[in-house]
Design a protein that fits this description.
The structure is a single chain. This protein is α/β, with parallel strands linked by helices and about 220 residues long. The protein has two domains: about 90 residues, Glutaredoxin; about 110 residues, Glutathione S-transferase Yfyf (Class Pi), Chain A, domain 2 (Up-down Bundle), CATH 1.20.1050.10. Helices cover about 45% and strands about 10% of the residues. It is built from eight helices and five strands. Strands 4-3-1-2-5 form a five-stranded mixed sheet, covered by helices on one side. A hairpin with a 5-residue loop joins strand 3 and strand 4. Helix 4 packs across helix 7. The chain is globular, with a radius of gyration of 18 Å. The chain starts with a strand and ends in an 8-residue tail after the last strand. Keywords: Transferase. Pfam families: GST_C, GST_N_2. It comes from Rohdeia mirabilis. Its EC number is 2.5.1.18.
Length: about 220
């Protein structure tokens, strides 16, 4: 598998899950200014990360599709039983994180997509952070009685939530406002798979000895 990622994005979740899943994979770093360029758009025409080239040379994008594919092709037993209550809970959280939670940050980071008038951007960010606070508070309450998103076991959702919840640390004091989430992120950053992904984002190459991570590959056009 090849995972296309940009540091600081939600693609951290897929990178960490690949490491945890014990499957061979390569990484391809996509600079922010290259995501809408002609080369990467032969991989994902929408210009978003993560994108995943599967072992049979198909390309997947959208976090939920990428994460589920990794989990389904992992020997680590990451997927709940089909048709189970746990699978329903997983789907609820994947949908929530990929919609309400992720989208809450859009006007904070990219107000120009919503308002053309630059003079209104600060007001939009300020108002949008109220929604971000509501989403963080919801997650904080959930984590009061859960060590991981789905109870006592590390799973698909944890690297995905970690990838996005860290964004809020720029704006809020988690220790004071969201202590459960703050402690959760401390634990997650100590998880080997997430620590690996964070190190990669920081430019620290860490080839693994178990045959999982096989290094970086260049960003080149795919045959279309």
């Amino acid at each position: 598998m090849i995972l296309y990622y940009t540091p600081g994005t939600c693609a951290l979740g897929a990178m960490a899950l690949l490491r945890h899943a014990e499957r061979p994979f390569q990484l391809c770093h996509v600079p922010r200014d290259a995501r809408m360029g002609p080369i990467f758009r032969t991989v994902n025409p929408h210009g978003h990360v993560p994108a995943l080239v599967t072992d049979d040379d198909r390309v997947l994008w959208e976090n939920s599709a990428v994460l589920i594919h990794i989990a389904q092709h992992s020997p680590a037993g990451l997927m709940p039983a089909a048709g189970s209550a746990a699978e329903d809970e997983l789907n609820v959280w994947l949908s929530y994180l990929g919609s309400e939670f992720h989208a809450a940050f859009y006007p904070v980071f990219k107000p120009q997509l919503f308002l053309r008038d630059d003079s209104l951007h600060d007001d939009l960010r300020r108002d949008s952070l109220k929604n971000v606070r509501r989403q963080l508070a919801y997650i904080d309450v959930h984590l009061e009685d859960n060590r991981f998103v789905m109870g006592d076991t590390f799973g698909i959702l944890d690297p995905y939530l970690t990838a996005m919840a860290r964004w809020g640390e720029r704006f809020f004091d988690y220790e004071r406002e969201f202590p459960n989430l703050g402690r959760y992120l401390e634990r997650m950053r100590a998880e080997p798979s997430i620590a690996f992904a964070l190190a990669i984002e920081n430019g620290d190459e860490q080839p693994t000895v178990d045959g999982g991570y096989a290094g970086h590959t260049d960003l080149v056009p795919r045959d279309v």
